[in-house]
Design brief:
- The structure is a single chain.
- The protein is mainly alpha-helical.
- Among the domains are: about 120 residues, no CATH class; about 170 residues, no CATH class.
- It is built from 14 helices and no strands.
- Helix 10 packs antiparallel against helix 11, helix 11 packs across helix 12 and helix 12 packs antiparallel against helix 13.
- The chain is elongated, with a radius of gyration of 63 Å.
- The protein starts with 7 loop residues before the first helix and ends with a helix.
- It is found in: Mitochondrion; Mitochondrion inner membrane.
- Its main location: mitochondrion.
- InterPro entries: ATP_synth_Bsub_B/MI25 (IPR008688), ATP_synth_F0_suB (IPR013837).
Length: about 425
């Protein structure tokens, strides 16, 4: 019994006297005398039972004693963990109950707050009723205005139909008047005298534009133009045409210098912007691919923004390159046209030599500005002279061609006059 009075862990810590007292305290009774009496009575009864052979101690007794000791040891070892587990379960149940109580309290408080917000429900209902009345009134006014607008639109459509009808009537009247005037003009144009005057004035205007006089055309085509036409030309028109010949050398391709500057600059700007945008956009796209090759996107949205950014970079790069090339091209063409105009003003004549000289001077300016090497300078001179030969040759060809057509037209007109005159004066013209 003494070996089970305390745990093995406590044997090294407790004093033997304390162990004895603990054994005594474990006995029933309230005092030392009663506990001693219990021990004496127990020992006496055990001795009596054994001496009288009422109970024989055998192997079963040992098994009972061993089982009792084992059960006591198991009880002492399992008592504390079981108590802790029971306490933990009770604490968990208590916590659940406490939490449920707190949740119930919070729900009750929330419900109280919700209900307390409805204490002004009567005033709110009255306000909403007033607002609903005002809304109904506004809707009625809006419906009335809508009806007025519908009536006004209907009236406007009717008035517009009348206006269109009157406009169609006026259009028909104008068309009839125009047809009447056209018929009268056609009847007047059938007069040979008026036709002759119109043709003569047109020829004078063409000669003044093309820098050619009646005498030069007549000397160039003597076998076509008759001497009698000179006497039939209006004197005032001939004098006015000679007065405009002094400045005709400024006209190239039927354009004045200012008009040529504007036309050439516009065309060169468009050409440079068109042919400079594509390589610039391509270069910008390749540069963007090279700069972002190490950080490619991994998602669909990333690829979308990647290509969107690439397109933006290509557009910006193409616009920059196109504007740069357009500026250079327009400046070179403007320089060529300016030099050509200056040479026309100095020589008082516009021909292919002025265009070639303008191309040579423009190539020299470009070579000096960009400090081109000898081979590139040679190519620049070839391009400038070729451009001058092409433009000047085309202008001279068109001018000669128009002069030839003019002389042919005048010759045809004079031949018609000759036939009319020959019918009445055959013997005088061919003796």
């Amino acid at each position: 019994i003494r070996s089970y009075a305390a745990s093995p862990k406590d044997d090294s810590q407790l004093d033997p006297s304390k162990k004895a007292l603990s054994i005594i305290d474990s006995l029933p009774g309230n005092s030392i005398i009663s506990k001693t009496g219990y021990i004496t009575v127990g020992a006496g009864l055990a001795t009596l039972v054994i001496s009288k052979e009422l109970y024989v101690a055998n192997e079963e007794t040992l098994m009972v004693v061993a089982f009792a000791g084992m059960a006591t040891a198991v009880y002492r070892m399992a008592k504390q963990p079981f108590n802790e587990w029971a306490a933990e379960q009770m604490a968990r149940v208590n916590n659940v109950l406490d939490q449920a109580q707190e949740d119930h309290k919070s729900a009750v408080k929330e419900r109280i707050n919700t209900v307390s917000q409805l204490r002004d429900i009567v005033d709110v209902t009255k306000t909403l009723f007033a607002i609903s009345k005002e809304t109904a009134k506004i809707e009625a006014e809006a419906f009335e205005l809508k009806q007025k607008v519908a009536v006004a639109s209907e009236v406007k459509s009717v008035l517009d139909s009348w206006v269109r009808y009157e406009a169609s009537l006026r259009e028909r009247e104008r068309k009839a008047l125009a047809n009447h005037i056209i018929e009268r003009v056609k009847v007047q144009l059938e007069d040979s005298t008026l036709q002759q005057k119109i043709l003569d004035q047109s020829l004078i205007d063409l000669e003044s534009k093309l820098d050619v006089s009646s005498s030069s055309v007549r000397n160039f085509f003597p076998f076509i133009i008759m001497p009698s036409t000179q006497s039939e030309m209006p004197q005032n028109s001939t004098e006015s045409s000679h007065s405009t010949l002094s400045s005709s050398y400024k006209i190239r391709a039927n354009l004045s210098p200012l008009e040529r500057f504007i036309t050439i600059t516009t065309i060169s700007l468009g050409w440079g912007l068109l042919f400079g945008s594509y390589p610039g956009a391509k270069t910008a796209g390749l540069q963007y691919l090279a700069e972002n090759a190490h950080k490619l996107p991994r998602t669909r949205s990333g690829w979308y923004h990647y290509h969107k950014r690439k397109n933006f970079v290509m557009i910006v790069g193409g616009m920059k390159s196109g504007i740069y090339l357009a500026g250079k091209t327009s400046l070179i063409c403007l320089c060529f046209s300016s030099v050509e105009t200056i040479l026309d003003e100095l020589r008082k004549e516009n021909d292919i030599w002025n265009s070639c000289a303008a191309g040579f001077v423009s190539a020299s300016i470009v070579s000096i500005f960009y400090r081109l090497p000898r081979q590139s300078t040679k190519y620049a001179y070839i391009i400038g002279l070729g451009f001058g030969l092409f433009t000047g040759g085309m202008q001279d060809y068109l001018k000669i061609r128009l002069k030839f057509l003019l002389s042919m037209y005048r010759g045809t007109l004079n031949n018609a006059k000759l036939r009319d005159w020959g019918r009445t004066n055959t013997m005088a013209l061919y003796p």
